[in-house]
Design a protein that fits this description.
With 250 residues, this protein is an all-alpha fold. Helix content is 76%, strand content 0%. The longest helix has 34 residues. The two termini are 38 Å apart.
Length: 250
């Protein structure tokens, strides 16, 4: 028996059907490997694109750098003599100490409650984020602004902001964790999500107001941290989905 080749119309219909099925699978809200996975990958891709754009501007010493310097100077010309102690308190929400305590507390809680997949993703997010931030800082070698020496502890480079990157990873992962283990109402979850977003924004703004980072450092930290957090969340979801599929298989 011979296999007759598909007619062009049949071949086109076959591929259109496959594309339609692929699209439906990707936007299916009932499975993690559907809409949830698509949103995670799109968010990660958008964050990586934003970070790459900012990095290109910083390395080229182009308009972005001049804009950073001008904004930084304008802010601190209006803040001379102001008491920045409240701002310095806000910035501690994204400090290594705060993020270390959050990371350790979450890891211990997940391990003791036997959420092993979530535990591995949680540890990967915090440890990986720290390593990635230091690698980028060492590769870019951007010097700090001139206004914030009093609020710096030790020498480090400016791009990307470690506080901004750590806060979006830490509080983003906390929001994701609470969505999965806390049986609160939708209103309560939205309120917590809103609070966590405000904390992330406040930490980033505090770094600019204190003069320890340029605006692009903060946005770059958010972009890099958001991309890594999305990768970890997607990884956790895929691992959990596979674990559930194995459990259902007789």
């Amino acid at each position: 028996m011979t296999n007759e080749p598909l007619m062009p119309e049949a071949g086109a219909s076959h591929w259109l059907s496959r594309l339609r099925t692929l699209w439906q699978d990707r936007v299916n809200p009932k499975t993690y490997l559907g809409l949830h996975l698509t949103i995670g990958l799109v968010f990660a891709a958008a964050s990586i694109w934003l970070f790459a754009t900012l990095l290109d501007g910083v390395l080229d010493n182009a308009l972005l750098v001049r804009w950073d310097v001008a904004v930084d100077a304008a802010i601190h010309a209006r803040m001379t003599g102001m008491n920045l102690r409240p701002v310095n308190l806000v910035t501690q929400l994204g400090s290594p100490v705060a993020m270390g305590l959050l990371g350790l507390g979450g890891a211990v809680s997940l391990w003791r409650s036997d959420h092993r997949t979530m535990f591995m993703g949680w540890v990967a997010a915090f440890v990986g984020g720290t390593v990635i931030n230091q690698m980028i800082k060492m590769a870019v070698h951007r010097t700090r602004p001139v206004y914030g020496a009093a609020y710096l502890h030790g020498a480090s480079f400016s791009f990307p902001s470690g506080h901004a990157m750590a806060s979006i990873i830490g509080y983003g992962m906390l929001g994701y964790l609470l969505r999965h283990v806390w049986r609160g109402s939708q209103r309560e979850h939205r309120a917590v999500d809103g609070l966590l977003i405000l904390m992330i924004l406040a930490v980033g703004l505090s770094r600019i107001l204190l003069g320890v980072h340029y605006p692009s450092d903060v946005v770059g930290g958010w972009a890099a941290g958001g991309a890594w957090m999305a990768v970890c969340v997607v990884g956790i979801g895929i691992a959990e989905q596979r674990r559930l599929d194995r459990a259902r298989t007789p």
